[in-house]
Amino acid sequence: MPAEGEGYDVVVVANRLAVDRDGTDKDGHPRWKRSPGGLVTALEPVMQSQEGAWVGWPGSPGDAEDAVSEPFDWGGMHLVPVSLSAEEVQGFYEGFSNGTLWPLYHDVIVAPEYHRQWWEDYVAVNERFAAAAAEVAAEGAVVWVQDYQLQLVPAMLRAARPDLSIGFFNHIPFPPYEIFAQLPWRRQVLEGLLGADLLGFQRPGDAQNFLRACRRSLQLVPRQQAVEVPAADGGRRRVTARAFPISIDAAAMDELARSPEVRERARQIRADLGDPDTVVLGVDRLDYTKGIGHRIKAFAELLDDGLLRADETILVQVATPSRERVEQYRLLREDIELQVGRVNGAHGTLGHQVVQYLHHSYGREEMAALFQVADVMLVTSLRDGMNLVAKEYVAARHDERGALVLSEFTGAADELGQALHVNPHDIDGLKSAVVQAVVMGPREQRRRMRSLRRRVFEHDVQRWARDFLAALRPDVGADVGAEAVEGGASGSGEHGSRS
Ligand code: ADP
Ligand code: G6P
């Protein structure tokens, strides 16, 4: 525990810091880029409006030459790095987190691998994160642990610091027991999570799956979305598991999309694409859960069938590089690039590629411009905790135009009822939805987009954080609410202040 009067009142612990190490500049200072993925997109505005610390891994091995180990401030946030060795990156991050848990929790779209050494690395790294959080949290602080990489942290932290209020949020689905039961360490994972006071999930079904796993594996009987577990003082402690659907900073995306620079950039992109009648867009991390292959297949068949014309339509697929050292991700990249090559070979002409495939990550301005260019946005995940891209598209469409095709297997589908819902495994159904989106008139686009925007703006990420923290600790939740009401989470201000 820090010395009396020291430490942070709110601590977020996530595998990723908001930024990822990107080499060193010519003066020898670390260079940073924003970390990929929805967790960082959601937490960044929340932490920019909070005085708190963010504990996480800076994205390169700690024994690398350019390792960063001292806390630093970035983008109005106080960041506390946790080092991983090259072996731990392999065993904990690429192995247990992304070779075991990620596929297991996403309905075994690819086969999870179970290796005892990976599990040992997972335990060791979770211990390090718990110790780092215990060191920076003030007496009686709120510690909010994030995501599947850190499921053991809540119990480890409670053992070290019983004074803390501990929350956990799972950004990805929690699988049905029949799938979860495969995990050789299922009891340890559940016991790790049960160290928290409050467990948040994306959908009510995820919370139910968790409670059911507690009943089946630990013989705990859930009552009113909670189970009781033994407490350190010999009494009982209540652990609640509920849905808190995550969201985006909708006002910030709206403001960005309205800026003259972004509008101009959107016009330029459309012109560079050859001013096609219809631009269809996909934006994802290059991940097998996203159904990118299904979407390209449907698009290609529509061209083959003559229902879309190659000279009038373009599919822009932006695929952020992700987890490139994990075998399944390498194979996926090869598959997708082969598929794109085939469609362009069959339907492209000199100077016109019908599928524009971009294996890069872009800045927020460019993303906002791309969303404005997209007449049709395709989100075809086979399983996705939430999918923030769908919400970003909606928030960027202040012109109330465009159509969103959305997989029913995303958390976002629960909220975005006016999107065109699809089962991405049903290629014919997906093709019909794409055609419906392409021919949709402006009146219908407006009607649907208004309702979608209402939902995304009313349930933004500030509200998500406020709801969660208020359920965990009403005094802290009220603070987040006050700041959101006063004008959003975009201010940076002085951060890193201590209690
Ligand atoms: P996941 O968390 O699984 O990656 P989400 O859709 O919830 O999926 O979040 C993805 C986040 O990453 C969004 O904020 C999206 O804008 C961002 N993103 C995805 N692809 C890119 C890209 N090529 N360049 C920049 N940002 C991207
Ligand atoms: C998803 C996960 C996050 C993760 C992100 C990017 O959003 O829920 O925990 O950070 O993907 O993946 P990466 O492996 O690059 O951190």
Automatic annotation (TrEMBL):
InterPro entries hit by this protein: Glyco_trans_20
GO molecular function list: alpha,alpha-trehalose-phosphate synthase (UDP-forming) activity
Transmembrane domains' residue ranges: none
Superkingdom of source: Bacteria
GO BP, sorted A to Z: trehalose biosynthetic process
Pfam families named among the record's database cross-references: Glyco_transf_20
Family the entry assigns: Belongs to the glycosyltransferase 20 family.
PANTHER family in UniProt: BCDNA.GH08860 (PTHR10788:SF106), TREHALOSE-6-PHOSPHATE SYNTHASE (PTHR10788)
Protein name in the entry: Trehalose-6-phosphate synthase
Organism: Pseudokineococcus marinus
